[in-house]
Amino acid sequence: MSIKWEFSAGGIVFKEEDNKIYVLLVRTKDRWSFPKGNIEKTESKENAAVREIKEETGIEGEIIDYLGNVEYYYRKGIDTIHKFVYYYLLRYKGGEITPQKEEIDEAVFVSIEEAEKLLSFDKDKQFLKKAENIIKTLITK
Length: 141
Prior knowledge:
Blueprint: E1 3-17, E2 20-28, E3 31-33, E4 36-38, H1 45-57, E5 60-76, E6 79-94, E7 106-111, H2 112-118, H3 122-139
Parallel strand pairs: 1-6
Antiparallel strand pairs: 1-2, 1-4, 2-3, 2-7, 5-6
């Protein structure tokens, strides 16, 4: 048994429509979260977040702020993986939702209230709350 390290980046993409804020969620099996994926060796965390979101969902975003990171362990065969995920807040720039079926089952924009109900992990809910506070300051300017 060995411990391997993984580094991923992703984020919360938001858009405003009809005076309401929507965020992008992805579903894999029965778990709802934010789009993310592995950082390539020569890539910055920011570039990885933008690229992975587009690859997984078809949605293009522009980074507004850094939200923080989470780390956890999981098992992959006989290995223990120590994973770090870096999250960013991104403003929707364009694109149509096109889920990358090899990675995720579904991608959808939902209201912040609906996202809070759907998200599977408490840490994601904390990032959502932080993102919501930042978005409110952006919109009131």
